[in-house]
Amino acid sequence: METISTTKTNKYTAANYLLYLLSKRDYSEQELRQKLKQKEYDLDEVENAIKKAQANNWQSDERFCAAFIRYRSMQGIGPRRLKQELKLKGVKDWLISQELEKAEVDWFELAEQIFEKKRPLVWNLKAKQKMWRFMLSRGFYNDHFSHLMHLDYENSEYE
User: Fold this and answer.
1) pTM value?
2) 63 in Cβ contact with 27 (< 8 Å)
3) CB neighbour list of residue 50: distance below 8 Å, 6 or more residues apart
4) What sequence ranges are listed for the domain RecX second three-helical (predicted)?
């Protein structure tokens, strides 16, 4: 009777697959580990492939973090949410803080742009609460947008 093998045989080495992934976009180290584990490569092979990629500067968490912050901030995402998303991708806290400080993003201006884009026509208590929740869900801190909540949008000068 024939036994069925439960291990997957891969067509390419872990290093080749890793290089293929990195040719598409930047990944964090943790994301690459997960992708290689999904393909059921040996742990030693995964470790060697990642070390080789980092030694040749094909993979860098610093570069990934900076590019991710730049990309997501252009989508209107604030620093609080960026921190959370980067932590989920396995980027270290100190690196996230460092890259957020280096990022050339004016969070107050970005918050104001997003706020003005979504501000409802009728500005009452319910609308203010909805906007507050929206801005927090986008990842902005209170001080980035709280001054906008107190403006009187009923005056004609803001229309």
Assistant:
1) 0.84
2) no
3) 18, 29, 32, 33, 36, 59
4) 60-98
